[in-house]
Design a protein that fits this description.
single chain, mainly alpha
Length: about 120
Amino acid sequence: MSGQRSRGRSSDHQRRIRTRNNNSNRRARADLSFSVNHLERLLREGHYAHHFSSSAPVFLAAIIQYMTATILELAGNEAQRRGSSRITPELLDMAIHNNALLSGYFRSTTISQVAPGWQ
C-alpha cells in the first residue's frame, strides 16, 4: 500500500470541517444578523491586537446589531413623525444627533451631505 492513500479521512481534514462547522454556527447560536466570521477576519487583518478571545467577534457583532437596530428605530420614529414611509440619510442624521448618547459617538461622522434644517 505504499504510495496509496488510506480510505479514512485525515485528521487535518476532520479538524478543518469541525472548525468550519463551529464557525458557521456562531452567528446562529448567538442569534445575530451580522456575520461573526467576517468580523473575526476584519479584526485579524486590522492588527488591532496580537491575540483576542473567540468571543470577541461575537460580542462585536452583537454590539453592531444593537446599535443598528437602535438607530433604525429612532430614524423610523422620526420618519413617522414627518409622515414619511422611508428612512432617508437626513432622517438617520437627525435621529443620531437628537439622541444624547449616539450624538457623542458619531460627533465627527458625516452621514448626510445635505445640511439639516435643525442646526
